[in-house]
Fold this protein.
Amino acid sequence: MPEDGRARRRTGTGAGLLLALVLAAVVVSVLPGREKGGEVGCIPRTIGSWSADDRLTAEFARYGDDAGRSDDWTGGDGTHSVRLPDGRLLWLFSDTYLGTVYGPPNPLGEPYSWRDTTAPLVRNSAVLMRGGRLESTLPAPLFPDPAPNQWRWPVAARVEPRSPGSDEQVVRVLLWVRTTGQYPWIYGVPTATEVATLSLPDLRVESITKVLDERRVEDPSRRVLFGTTLVEEGEWTYVFGGDDGQAASRTASSAYVARVPVGGLGEPGAWEYWDGSAWTTGARPHPVLGDGRRTGVGSAFSVVRQDGTYVLFTMAAGTKGLAAVTSYWACSPTGPWHGPRGDFTPPLPAGQVAAYNPQAHPAVSGSDSGDVEGGLVLSYDVNWLEAAGASAQLNRNVSLYRPRFVTLKLVPRG
């Protein structure tokens, strides 16, 4: 990846490839049965089966290839979603190509749709879906750069009361702020976690609030960004986050968790972080998963809850780390987490490509809280593996930079 901000914009390889390269590790033992101190109904769960969700994958291809639009989404990564009160689905993306898609065939005679090399690339975007059909792209970028050489990547989002107990609802979007950096921080130095408040139903950005400023942490590998995934339970929203591990050596990241009263995501003082033994507002967050060597996650991972059991999805370790998805389970957001288990390798196009950023979509699966039953829709992003020539590859074959989907079945593990 280029090291300066301008070159970084040309590559368009997106938020998640960094996060894919910081991977999970090897299997640890899993004890059957309900864990002591865990919830009633909490039992080991793993991925029992999966199938490609061709309908959703094809819908993003249809929308991105629509030549009738000149300024809409044609590809992006960092895929997150949230269901709005009127039934629409808001899809959020990190680095995004706009513009027009042509073909196939492309000028090289290949049977792929393609985009011109002058196609605009923005740091984030949002696309609206109604009734399973993508309709429009909001003016992009939706979240402006906070300062020169900094940018915002949207991650998880939630519809919640404007304040605890309020009858008025807003959309809260977690944002990762990154700053242009030198090698090995070619995807940007982790800088801060912010929360944007969007009005309903017009989705106007009302405010952006910084909830955790990490610039005082000298070692960038120890900086934690929150919001890769959210799970609501009772009166609390649990917000998971990760660090980037050692970017140069690509060691595993650690997972962290905070909690916020429902309605309080936009209030920095309402955030409590798990410090290893208690929830606190004053101490540094302590990892709930990952030892930097044997166990851990990619810093983009996803968590859902089924019948009292929390299930975490991340990229698998070792030689499977850019192709396979695996899972952990726990009876509490703070762990202990057991796994990884249930590896599966979703479909990938031919070539030097990587899968990354596995994200669960409970709203698509029929749940708004993150508590799911039955089939669970999971997306994964696809990108060209090598930084050199990535932009050219993504433009000559636009399908390489769009989300793909599978439907999972979680089952008890005996």
Observations:
- The helical segments are 5-11, 14-21, 54-65, 362-365, 390-396.
- The first strand starts at residue 45 and ends at 52.
